[in-house]
Specification:
Layout: E1 11-14, H1 28-39, E2 47-49, H2 61-75, E3 81-85, H3 90-103, E4 107-110, H4 122-135, E5 140-144, H5 155-164, E6 168-173, H6 178-189, E7 196-199, H7 205-210, E8 215-218, H8 221-236, H9 240-257, H10 265-275, H11 293-305
Parallel strand pairs: 1-8, 2-3, 3-4, 4-5, 5-6, 6-7, 7-8
Helix pairs in contact: 1-2, 2-3, 3-4, 4-5, 8-9, 9-11, 10-11
Family: Belongs to the DapA family.
GO molecular function, one term: 4-hydroxy-tetrahydrodipicolinate synthase activity
Protein name: Dihydrodipicolinate synthase
């Protein structure tokens, strides 16, 4: 049962990483340390687990349950926990939702089913979300992929989802077109029953936030949660000068984290935490593989440029 029953997804929400041992088993002690490190940052509203950043695609349901248990033990009394629902079938998604609620999750981030890359209808999307909402009363977050992937929901489908599934409270918006992103922010947050837009456009976060998002949900928060929280506060305060100053520090990390191939973004974030002395190793599960020494060197340069690495005083400090 959630310890934060009134939680509505909004604000600054880092998506944490999942450390592994060399044999690919979960490194529980370092996961606990990572959770404590990230959530020591002031100004967070929640954290996210069992999502892209924790390599959920390679985790079994038992491993996802263990990740939830650890997160609940470490931070569940202080912050709400958002649990990802990654499943190709709606019945499995409902089972994950029930497991997450039983483990203490406060909201669910619902990924689009992979079969939607082959085509989808509004009725299919509704069936998926209704099956999940029938299994739990937790607030749901729609993960809106780019429409070009086939897994993004057209505007008419989103409208039906919001009208017919009342537990949907937010959208994690990965819309890459600025005009469409702004249109969704205005339309969804202006509804009679508002739907909060959480930006996941971390490669251009300042631009996204100034359009009016009511929050952000970001894997790079595993490394720069403090900078993101301060940027969000500056935007909310209409302090553009401070927001631009903070964005100048965030930009070097965004440039290297979200380089091609995009799928390596969280791989790179693990390497950044190793460079910062916060993880002992940057192991990822296949099919992901370790990035090159040249790319690690570029990450080191970016951390130095961002003012996060370079002197003994900066090592081990949480992106202050």
């Amino acid at each position: 049962m959630s310890r934060h029953p009134d939680f509505v997804p909004q604000g600054v929400i880092p998506a944490v990483l999942l450390p592994f041992h060399e044999d690919f088993s979960i490194d529980e002690p370092n996961f606990r340390a990572h959770l404590r490190d990230v959530t020591a940052v002031q100004g967070l509203s929640a954290i996210t687990i069992n999502a892209h950043s924790t390599e959920v695609a390679s985790c079994t349901r038992d491993e996802q349950r263990r990740v939830m248990e650890i997160a609940s033990e470490e931070v569940g009394d202080r912050l709400p926990i958002i649990h990802g629902v990654w499943a190709d079938g709606s019945l499995e998604a409902a089972r994950i939702a029930r497991q997450a609620e039983a483990g203490g999750a406060s909201a669910l981030l619902v990924f689009p089913p992979a079969p939607f890359t082959l085509g989808q209808s509004a009725e299919m999307a509704l069936a998926h979300f209704r099956t999940i909402s029938d299994a739990t009363d937790l607030p749901l977050i729609v993960f809106q992929y780019p429409l070009a992937t086939g897994q993004g929901y057209p505007a008419a489908t989103l409208e039906r989802l919001f009208d017919e599934v009342p537990t949907i409270r937010a959208i994690k918006d990965w819309t890459p077109q600025v005009a469409q992103h702004e249109s969704q922010i205005r339309a969804l947050q202006g509804r009679a029953r508002p739907i909060n837009v959480l930006s996941t456009n971390s490669a251009w976060l300042l631009s996204s936030l100034v359009l009016g998002c009511n929050g952000l949900l970001s894997g790079s928060g595993s490394v720069i949660a403090d900078l993101q929280a301060r940027l969000y506060r500056a935007v909310k305060a209409n302090d553009l000068a401070e927001a631009r100053r903070l964005n100048d520090r965030i930009y070097p990390t965004a440039r290297v984290f979200y380089a091609d191939p995009f799928v390596d973004m969280h791989n790179r974030m693990k390497e950044a935490l190793v460079l910062l002395g916060k993880l002992p190793r940057a192991v990822v599960r296949p099919p992901l593989v370790k990035i090159s020494d040249a790319e690690i060197a570029r990450i080191r340069d970016a951390l130095i440029e961002a003012g996060l690495l370079g002197t003994p005083a900066t090592l081990g400090r949480n992106a202050a």
